[in-house]
Write a structure and sequence with these properties.
The chain has four helices and five strands. It has 322 residues and is of the alpha+beta class.
């Protein structure tokens, strides 16, 4: 009880000293115009309660006056800012108030000063640390009390040995059961594989028998088809031979008839030609006979005329001769 009160008193004093010392050591919550470490070109101090921006490098303030944003080096008297509530933000725009509605939305809920919030966080953390310390002390006291009791230690050792033996026995039993289970599963797998192989062998045998039957049926069908095709081929060949022979006989008969007809036509043409030649010869003979008779007649007439002319001449010759 006294130890707990002492710890509480020490922690309370430590927290009080930290609350007094830490605000003076914090560089963030200082007066305006102070440029802390790590202050960059785009760093601005934003005051949510007054809606004012402050740029540390240029020393310029940005605030809303008559609905218009104004830049100045000093704030008007009616605008007051509290360094405890400022927020360091990075703004890369040409003017910091371009996203003012986002800044107000993000920082408007945080009305509590950062120092008070940090104190609350430290207080909660200290409470948790105190509870953990108390729990560790309680466990240490329990362990010391158990260690001071040798009988308890022996009992614990015997209990641990018994637990270890039981664990070892359970482990061995579990290993035996696992081995038996593995052996049983292996035997089942072997039996299953054997049954599966036997089933596959029977299935393959039946499939092979079915394939052989199918092959025999196909061979028998092919043989029947071959015989039928051979018979049809023989019938077609015989029919074709008969047709060819009939065609040959018809062609021979036709050729014989054509030859006889051609012979008859040739005989008729020859006879007609002989008749024509004989007629031509008779006509030529008749014409020649007529010409000969005509020539003979003309000759006789010429002789008669010549004789008629010679007769007076002979009479005159005779006179002269006389």
């Amino acid at each position: 009880m006294h130890t707990r009160q002492l710890i509480r008193f020490v922690l309370t004093g430590f927290l009080g000293a930290a609350a007094v010392v830490l605000p003076g050591c914090d560089d963030y919550y200082t007066a305006p115009g102070y440029i802390g470490p790590g202050y960059g070109t785009y760093d601005y101090d934003y005051y949510p309660r007054s809606n004012v921006y402050y740029h540390g490098l240029s020393g310029s303030y940005y605030y809303v006056g008559d609905g218009i944003w104004t830049r100045t080096q000093t704030l008007p008297v009616h605008i007051s800012i509290n360094p405890r509530y400022r927020r360091r933000i990075v703004i890369r725009d040409t003017v910091p108030y371009r996203r003012n509605h986002e800044h107000r939305r993000i920082h408007s809920f945080d009305r509590r000063p950062p120092i008070a919030r940090d104190r609350l966080i430290r207080r909660v953390e200290d409470r948790h640390l105190r509870r953990e310390q108390i729990e560790r002390e309680r466990r240490a006291r329990d362990a010391d009390r158990l260690r001071r009791s040798s009988l308890e230690r022996d009992r614990l050792r015997r209990e641990e040995a018994r637990i270890e033996r039981d664990r070892q026995l359970r482990r061995e039993e579990f290993d035996r059961r696992a081995r038996r289970e593995r052996e049983r599963r292996r035997q089942e797998m072997i039996d299953e594989r054997f049954r599966r192989d036997e089933e596959i062998r029977r299935r393959n045998q039946s499939e092979r028998q079915r394939v052989e039957d199918t092959i025999r049926r196909n061979q028998a069908r092919a043989e029947r088809q071959r015989q039928e095709e051979e018979a049809r081929r023989r019938d077609r060949a015989q029919t074709e031979r008969q047709r060819v022979e009939d065609t040959i006989r018809r062609n021979q008969a036709r050729a014989e008839r054509q030859r006889q007809e051609e012979e008859a036509r040739r005989h008729d043409r020859a006879q007609a030609e002989r008749q024509r030649v004989e007629d031509t010869i008779r006509r030529n003979q008749a014409r020649a006979e007529r010409q000969r008779q005509e020539e003979l007649r003309r000759r006789r007439e010429a002789e008669a005329e010549a004789e008629a002319q010679e007769r007076p001449e002979r009479k005159g010759w005779r006179r002269e001769t006389r």
